[in-house]
Write a structure and sequence with these properties.
Blueprint (H helix, E strand, L loop, with lengths): L5 H13 L6 E5 L23 H13 L4 E5 L9 H10 L3 E6 L6 H10 L3 E5 L13 H14 L3 E8 L8 H11 L3 E6 L12 H13 L2 H15 L14 E4 L4 E3 L8 E4 L5 H9 E2 L9 H7 L9 E2 L5
Parallel strand pairs: 1-2, 1-7, 2-3, 3-4, 4-5, 5-6, 10-11
Antiparallel strand pairs: 7-8, 8-9
Helix pairs in contact: 2-3, 3-4, 7-8
């Protein structure tokens, strides 16, 4: 989720509360290709071409017609897309909040200035540890120069995200990453590695302790997410909540289809250009079997404002 000004945040909240048919957040894959090969990641390949700009413009226009509030460009690695700045401008043209997620390796002063001019409002980088190894190259040692460029040039908000559960050896690294992020004026968040279906990967006692320490130092929204969702999951307990994926949150794959999230591809699997209010209503009102043990925080956050209303029904069993 983007970090909005107080005024922007109030406007977004008001629109969501006034209508149950507006998506709050959409993740749009602009390319499946990534310049890195992190061992734990299943969200990339080494052969895909960028989604053509014209197709992405159609998808952004369609999201605007649905009343989407925030659009996050993701991948793969979005910075490998040659038209990224123009895509950001298209999002901003419609008055939607524009954010992106990157591994940071391709950042230069020129690319940062380009995103400034295009109107980007938030950029997130995941940093997995202090020193690179066979699991991940996304580390402080590899990226400190890029972080300093962002600190100097970026006019948009920068968030550094750490993921616990990648390896036991990296547990304490998350504390160093958080310290470095704050020293540069960035926010820091922490997530938990999930499996291929979005369920929690087991954490050791040491990893749990570091997670709780980082939670206490995080933002109010981050702490609420921990108290309402992650705390139970880390104790092996399910959560009772109303997942609004497919309504408040949309995951748009490189083929232009809508999925509940990156871990539930194929459901519903409807082309975005055909996605309408009937699809949103059905997704909003239908309980998802994967919800009790889901760790996908962007879906948690997008569903939060609807926790109090609109009971859900379970989908009918299939033969």
């Amino acid at each position: 989720m983007a970090s909005l000004t107080i005024g922007e945040g109030l406007k977004v909240a008001a629109r969501i509360l006034l209508s149950k048919r507006r998506p709050l957040l959409a993740h749009v894959v602009v390319t499946r290709y990534c310049n890195l090969e992190c061992a734990y990641c299943s969200e990339y390949d080494k052969v895909s071409k960028p989604v053509p700009k014209a197709e992405l413009f159609e998808r952004i226009d369609a999201l605007a017609r649905l009343g989407t509030q925030v659009v996050t460009l993701t991948g793969g690695e979005p910075l490998t897309h040659p038209d990224l700045d123009e895509i950001i401008r298209r999002i901003r043209f419609h008055g939607m909040v524009a954010t992106t997620i990157t591994n940071g390796f391709l950042l230069t002063a020129k690319t940062i200035e380009g995103m400034n001019a295009a109107g980007l409002q938030e950029l997130q980088i995941s940093i997995d540890g202090v020193k690179p190894d066979a699991i991940s190259k996304k580390t402080l040692k590899s990226l400190m120069g890029k972080l300093k460029l962002l600190s100097k040039h970026a006019k948009f908000h920068v968030n550094i995200n750490s993921v616990l559960g990648v390896s036991h050896d990296r547990t304490q690294d998350a504390l160093e990453v958080a310290k470095a992020a704050r020293s540069l004026g960035f926010s820091h968040t922490v997530g938990v590695l999930h499996d291929g279906e979005g369920a929690l990967a087991p954490l050791s006692a040491g990893q749990t302790g570091v997670y709780e320490k980082l939670m206490r130092a995080g933002s109010l929204a981050h702490r609420l997410n921990y108290l309402m969702f992650q705390k139970n999951l880390m104790a092996g307990k399910p959560n009772s909540w109303k997942c609004r994926a497919g309504a408040r949150y949309l995951y748009i794959c490189e083929d232009g289809n809508v999925h509940f999230c990156s871990q539930q591809r194929g459901s519903p699997g409807v082309p975005l250009l055909e996605y309408g209010q009937a699809h949103i209503r059905a997704a909003y009102e239908t309980a998802k079997a994967c919800a009790p043990f889901c760790t996908v925080s962007c879906v948690h956050q997008a569903s939060f404002l609807d926790a109090w209303r609109a009971p859900q029904r379970h989908a009918p069993a299939t033969a």
